[in-house]
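Objective 1b: paired records.
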Amino acid sequence: MGLRYFVKALLKWIFGIAMVLTFSTCSGPGGVRIIKMGHGLGVTHPVHEAMVYMADRIEEKSQGRMIVKVYPNQQLGTERELVELLQIGSLGMTKVSSATLESFAPPMQVLSMPYLFRDDAHRDKVLKGPIGQKLLLESEDFWLRGLCYYDAGKRSFYSKNKPIETPEDLKGLKIRVLESNMATNMIKSFGGSPTPISYGELYTALQQGIVDAAENNPPSLFTSRHYEVCKFYSINEHTAIPDVVIISTKVWNNLSQEEQQWIQEAADESADYQYKLWEASVELSLQEMEKAGVTITYPDPSPFRQAVEVMYDNFKTTQPELYDIIEEIRKTGE
């Protein structure tokens, strides 16, 4: 297995080097710089709309000298594959969950801790302040640079056969999770069986019974149409894991200071725009799913909070340096 993995990785690297000059960035007519950006969400998702807004702002700021082309719906690969393409410079930009970055920037794990933030104001103060901005740059050693955070809402459980009212309701169920150690440990703390599955494959997995339930925010549940299979949405809001817009350092480091400024300013502006889109999308998604016959409940979060305290205890013992960041986050804004 080790040799096969090495060969596969080597071939991917060779392919990336061969494509880097034509795939991630290229020059169009008149010396226009073109950057490709891929993601896995649909065109009606507020994240996609924010990316298009960012692309428009970059074109405006650069007076047409830089163009970002956005490719949705996993046209260029799954989230994990897109990250790998950024690392070798074969893709310019993407959006990922901060949970996906845990493998490349261990401090990012703290943002996946369940019930980490007191409320939205606390979360925003952390992400827009020194802690959040420092975390954006933690993955640079792995050729990934964070530009800004997008609101990915609060994740809750949706299921096929019954509502999830307490952690006990998760026992014996196969729960789809992000490819994240934190997400896996959280589901285990609740008593469920964590099952990592690509977002693009989840609808079929729910239909076929490969998993019994999943967890996500309202707009993602609605735009993915997973509610057609899962008629129970239990809003316990266990995590508020942000999305991160990232750029390949192999692209970033080849830009002029002025070009970098265009991208960073446009990314920050798109984040503000996305937050507004997200708020409206949450309300609309819940309304439309209720009309479609989804039973929406609001279970008491206290039992869920108690069940994951073991995760904080383990962090304090096994990863004290990361636990210090958690403590710093908890004290922010007090």
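Objective 1b, second protein:
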Amino acid sequence: MAGHDNWTETVNASFIYAKCSKAERQTLWSELSSIARSITRLWLVGGDFNVISTLAEYTGRAPQDLGAISDFNTAISNCRLQELSYTGSSYTWSGIRAGTRIWKRLEKTLVNQQWLDFLPNTSVQHLNHTSSDHSPLLVSMRPASASVPKSFKFQTFWISNPGFISTVQSNWELSTQGYGMYRLAFKLKRLKTWLRHWSKHQFGDIFQAARQHEIEVQQKEVLYEANPTEEAREALHCAPGRLLQSLRVQEEYWRQKARLQWLKDGDCNTRFFHASVREKRTKLAIHRIKDGEEAWVDDEEQIAREAVDFFQRLLTAEEVGGG
């Protein structure tokens, strides 16, 4: 963390060099679980675990110990850790076993949710072997990416508004010039613009609305206690209903963001949805790519520029081929 003058967080790190046998690793899993129960700060766990977490992390002919794999995954789950995305080779160790070469990914870097909340752009690079048969891991931590214009997304909580269907229909039936796909594209663009304004008017900031409704419930309770009239009682009964509705809108928002439809309706899983979205963003983040000359690029602006250049080259090649 040298050079970060404004650093305010305390970071905990556990560096692993695990035993080779399944039985001997049980002590390690137990100690990590004990740390996880008491730790409340950013926590990184990385090193040589001497076990894979899935058969996809192994190439060779020797059978693998499924019990050891299960124990490792159980330990990760019990510690509430998540693996960071990586670049480089799929394997971090190679050796000879029973007269044949095998490859495994024994090195990993895991972090807790507090780490992902504070450093969402952390990534891992598997470096090349040098004097060891294990690959060193390079962990890079960067601040959150600068905000970019938001793309349009249909929000499923819009449907909860009683007038949604009729207003969409009335907008769609407005007169339109042109024919065929041009007319369809124009209708969709017009509807998209209208939905943005409509959502802002009908729902506004759904998170701010929930906070305001919480304050409203507290205020109505104080007013009723100070003056328990029938009017105050009715107002007190209405306020929790508005709060509950705003919380349901929030839950549906996170449910859609996380794309997890299998959880039971009605359970308030907002924190779980939020964590799932962050985990997905971490895994899908692009930390570096190769440019047209096969050189690695890791600057965010260069990555964006190279992505645009790639598709431009692709389109040019298709136009030349088609001509």
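The mean pLDDT is 83. Residues 156-284 form one domain.
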